Amino acid sequence: MISDLSSTLATDSRWHQLALQVLEGKHITSVQAEEILRTSDDELLELLAGAYRLRHKHFGKSVQLYFLVNAKSGLCPEDCGYCSQSKLSKAPIDKYRMLSADQLLDGARLAAERGSKTYCIVISGRAPNEREMTAVEMVVPQVKEKYDLKICACLGLLNDTNAQRLKACGVDRVNHNLNTGKEHYDKICSTHTYEDRVDTLKNVRSAGLELCSGGIIGMGETPSDLVSMAMELRELQVESIPLNFMHAIEGTPLEKEGNLTPQDCLRALCMMRFVNPASELRIAGGREKHLRSLQPLSLYVANSLFVGDYLTTKGQPPESDYQMIADLGFEITRTEFDSP
């Protein structure tokens, strides 16, 4: 009887009905997206069930693993308030220039050993200089030949020429996060604009590369700001969306932010899935800190995660991720999922 009642409640819920509309190809509105973010805790499981219908339609029970290497750390002239690598940060982090080709290849080896589909090469800074561009161009073909990994490059602001060079050397996609909504952006950064980030994504798309772009929740934004970012990602038709959960680092301007509950994180993931149902959705930095024991629930919405550490913060052991995925009955795959 309890099982029957639960089934009836799930299929009668407004989130089930909204999921059906999305499955029929209808976009949800900004108002509906904000309603998702304001869902009560009592409705959260029904919301997750609706989001899972969308995830399952496009990705089944597959999980894609990503591995990132901090290929250049610190030394950044930008003033992004959340970042321990910015010029304003007093956080004690490692600072070094571009890693050698051998070091980047060793990172690719580890990515392959951990079952990753994609190797993410990330550098700090406003934009890549010629030396950094050349280093990426030289190592990407070697990584692909030796380890058969997809390559995602995160190199800062890109002009048309640099985007085309990345495409030519074999990069598959470029990461450049919007980070937050347009109206909130000047509260977290002043050395470049939201429009600069959008322009980079448009340059990347024009070069024929896939887009990886997401953001960070918990930086003092409003629900409207978060929805605005999600809608912009939909407009840009972003293939991959990493969602970070603000891991406030002592010594950064936003060190007091990041007051999130696991439920806040789950609601944000659900909203992003309803707005961008066919995009790969990744639980990224801060998931261990904020989702805590509810991490498994996040994979009923997201279909991807970083395995290992982040740029300047630690992740949980890969074995914990593998166990979580297995316990859910999901499967790690390095191939694209073909929806039924």
Number of domains: 2
Q: So how many helices?
A: 13
SSE order, one letter for each helix or strand: HHHHEHEHEHEHEEHEHEHHEHE
Shape: globular
Radius of gyration: 19 Å
Give me the oligomer status.
Answer: single chain
Give the percentage of residues in beta strands.
Answer: 5-15%
**CATH architecture grouping of the largest domain:** Alpha-Beta Barrel
Distance between the terminal alpha carbons, to the nearest Å? 32 Å
Provide the helix percentage.
Answer: 40-55%
**Mean pLDDT, as a whole number?**
93
Question: Got a strand count?
Answer: 10
Low-confidence stretches: 1-9
Q: Can you tell me the CATH superfamily of the largest domain?
A: Aldolase class I
Describe the main β-sheet briefly.
10 strands, parallel
CATH topology of the largest domain: TIM Barrel
From the helix content, strand content and strand pairing, which structural class follows? alpha/beta
CATH class of the largest domain: Alpha Beta
Describe what you observe in this structure.
This protein is an alpha/beta fold. The protein folds into two domains: 2-51, no CATH class; 56-332, Aldolase class I (TIM Barrel), CATH 3.20.20. The protein is built from 13 helices and ten strands. The chain has helices spanning 2-12, 14-23, 30-37, 44-59, 101-113, 130-147, 160-169, 194-206, 223-236, 262-275, 287-290, 295-298, 318-327; strands at 62-72, 118-123, 150-154, 173-175, 210-212, 215-217, 240-245, 280-283, 304-306, 331-332. Helix 8 links the parallel strand 4 and strand 5. The longest helix is centred in the middle third of the chain and has 18 residues, at 130-147. It is globular. The two termini are 32 Å apart. Residues 1-9 have low confidence and may be disordered.
